[in-house]
Amino acid sequence: WLGRAFVLAATVGVLLSVLQAQERLDDRWPAARHGEELSVRGHVTSLPERSLGFSADDGQTLRFEFAPDDPALPSRIRVSWYRSEAALRGGECWTLRLKLRTPHGSLNPGAFDYEGWLYARGVGATATVRDAQACTATRVMPVLRARQALIDRLDTWLAAHPGKAMIAALTVGEDSGFSDADWTVFRETGTSHLVAISGFNIAILAGLAFLLVRWTWPLSRALAQRLPAQKAGMIAAAVAGLIYGLLAGWESPAQRAALMLALLLLAALPDRRADPSRVLAAALMLMLAFDPAAGLSPGLWLSFGAVAAIFYASAGRLRLSPAWRVAVHLQILLSVLLAPLTLGFFHGSAWLGLLVNLVAVPVMAVLTPLVLAAVALAWSLPGLGEPALLAIADLLSILQQALAWLAAHAPQPWIPAAPPAAALLLALFGALLLFAPRGWPGRGLGLLCFVPLLLSPAQPVRGPFELTALDVGQGLSVLVRTPTRALLYDAGPAFEDGFDAGESVVAPYLLGLGLRGVYRLVLSHGDRDHAGGVPAVRRLVHVREELGTEHHEPCREGMSWDWDGVRFEFLHPDGGEWSDNNRSCVLRVSSDGFSALLAGDIERAAEERLLSTHAGGLKADVLIAPHHGSKTSSTEAFVRAVAPQEVIFGAAWRSHYGHPRPEVVARYLD
Hints:
6-stranded mixed β-sheet; 22 helices; 19 strands; globular
């Protein structure tokens, strides 16, 4: 049977995936021991990521992966060290007092899957540092130590130069030096790929290795008689590509490029020419065989998709064209073919990407080899190399500033959208049809396949209104939809560690519903766990009106409106002096036979006022519990007056605040 090879490959793939999945699940820290503190000795197995908090008091935060010496613990722990003053380096031995946690994420539709991300990286536990002491034990980690040594040299050569982050990204794949604002600029200009080490970087280094060995090998007659110089150069290029891929962090694009190069040169050694498409498939098979969880990474599919698009563009083309025309054609092809993948993975697309990359890609094609050469020169001859490296860092900084200017002045550079999977697949087919070889029938029909991307309707509302409380951890975000309009009550938290509920949860959920924005955003009060995600929501979706946010009208008792027969009414605050929590906007939403009460973070004093002024109007079927279910709220009289059938607590899983309090839960249940 001709299909037996494919069935065998699929069967082996499934078995490998299940085996690895079970091993990683067995390696997880058990939920029953969540929050347990242990003293753990081990080694730092990644380059530490350094970030600063929102204020000077927050200090420096370090994040790194840690491998314990104790085999009874998870083999890889992702550690956060808040307010750290340590000069932590990759490969060092430390004894850490850790508070261990079970990997946990949220299951909001369309949102970032943090737990899945940890699983794909093989992380069995997360932890925070309570105490730390350096130790002297050593572990052989030559690749990590080499990467750390180069980062240390860059810190010495460039100090706080704004171009240092890009040089670190282009040399060793270390991108933690970029701020959230930098990543926003890269996303809005479609240039994130420029700071990722991929085939271009590896090809440059492999090409240099080939030339060096090719021209020096014949200097030895004995070597040249045993192996031709061309083949010696091929072996050197393959080895250099694999080593550089490892030094670059062995991320999906670097893996793909290094493996493809090695396979192509391996086939060329016996004087055979490999089919590039088969080499691409073999590289994918090898990557997934060794790490099936790599298939969860968007970077893998974007990298392989880009190379497959280039192969597709070069197939069946008989007429030679000028180099500039080929480059422009390829850039247009990549932008169109990868647009469905970008929309699917990142819920949006940058219309600037095509125009910017037509200039930025050639510029980086010149600067990247100069960066590698300047780093090598600075290492060997500091007197010559350091000034050259500083000059190139200046050029890269200017490039970043130009990208930031474009992102700031272009009208809506990022187009948010999350079309359904069927529309994305149809658009991908349309792109293939559109860029088929000349003479292929019906190529123009490919444009019609993109129409569903522009006409994705919003999901209909079942009933007079729908209320959705999103899981944003310790915080709150509630979406209320009527048939024609939507209201967002709070936008969840944003923390210094990079998690932003507005960007990771709220906006993706709205876009997944087919909504490009909300009619009204209501901020209950200014605490970070309610307001942190507001800037991201404003940036990613359209907000027509706001209440309670800074520089906008505050909410007040008595304000009300009707949408599609659904009544919205604020019951609190009045004009009195209140604490931040008690100043929360209390919103009642009601229609025929059903009502909901959104109580923000009010506490006992505000509840008493509501009981005295709205005792008969507090009844609700659904209650967003005040203040996450804390013991300072949900008094017995308030619970009796609201008498909800369903109560939702905006609290994190295993909340370190103890929310919701057991006595509060019991009060509602009683």
